[in-house]
Write the structure tokens for this entry.
Amino acid sequence: MNSDVIIKIDGVFKKYTRDIFSSRWQSLREYLKVLFGMNRYSCITANEFWALKSIDLQIRRGESVALIGKNGCGKSTLLKIIAGILSAEKGRVFVDGKIQALINLGAGFERNLTGRENIINACSLFGVSDAKGVVQEIIEFSELGEFIDNPISGYSSGMYARLGFSLATHLAPDILLIDEILAVGDVAFKNKCMTKIFELKKRGVTIILVSHSHSQVAQLCERAIWINEGEVIKQGNCKDILSDYLSFMEERNPNKINRIKNKNINSESLEKAVAAGLYGPIYDNSDSISNIEVQINGSYEDFSINLHEELVINYSFYLNSQVKNLNVSVNIYTPDGELITTISTLNGDILKHKELGEVKCTLKIQGINLAPGRYVLLMPIHEGHSYLYRHVIGEFWVKTPKELTWGKMNFKYQYKVQE
């Protein structure tokens, strides 16, 4: 293997079974094949599927590489095969260095031992001498305080994350594998983890990252490998591959706005999110409100908008009984339930005079600056502080520009380089 190549993957295949009983039989069957020297690679049965198909990759020493793709495409499976956690049906993986894997934080810990005792054991296991106070460095980085001398069986998931990350990044790895672990823990600790990873990167540690955070991918990695349905679709410069992948996902997404009429949601995913309370309480049984109609940019149907374009929401409803102090809000949420903003007629009390009959409004948002992605709209209708109606009125998609974007907002800007 070329001395510049630290990981080489040749023709790797991996299959899984869809149900637990077949999975146990498959494991026994594969064990027997290995025992008797038979070829493990064969056609799949009706209950099996290929998680990885003919993967050929090379990763250079000191390189930072992202594995990107939709859920279930095979990214985590490939990472576990590189780490030696899983074995492949066919193909080989060559690794020239010591691996630390941030895949299942806490895996390998002895739950009856304290945090300190687990750190000492791990250092001994990996041949790390404590001559330079590595154990104390790990303890201080974890910020577990007095809990470091408690049995880890009582640790929360966040405490496990602190201990696991601190251990893995202080055991002098040549290769660091990261699978969505940076999504664990509070904001301050996440920032501390990112700083540590950049420090390891500067030292020449090879990093392979699986993450759905495109900002993390773009910040950390020079190269990206796009995997879809178990196969490598494309690899190359991180920015270019990310742009291609996001454009591909947009084309496959229906970009739907779901019209709410007669209090129905025409989207199964929205129904589940609403039922789970993801967007807060729902009020839609009041006899005070009827005939709700909503249009976005003049359409009841599928809707998407380019970044920085104008968003126009037209809505109307009928007040069946007299109300006092009417106000209407439009709430914009991320799909996972985070409130982005509330726009309310309370500013100026512009609907306070409406007490009965039809209400029609137009809301214009000039130059929408939300980061590309899907968003959910809710419309609370109030009488004073009481809800008359509060429900999802639709969803829209902000389309990806040619430039990469980070964070939750995207502003128009101009750079001028001073000579």
In short: Residues 199 and 205 are 9 Å apart (CA to CA). The chain has a mean pLDDT of 83. The first strand starts at residue 5 and ends at 17. The radius of gyration is 27 Å.
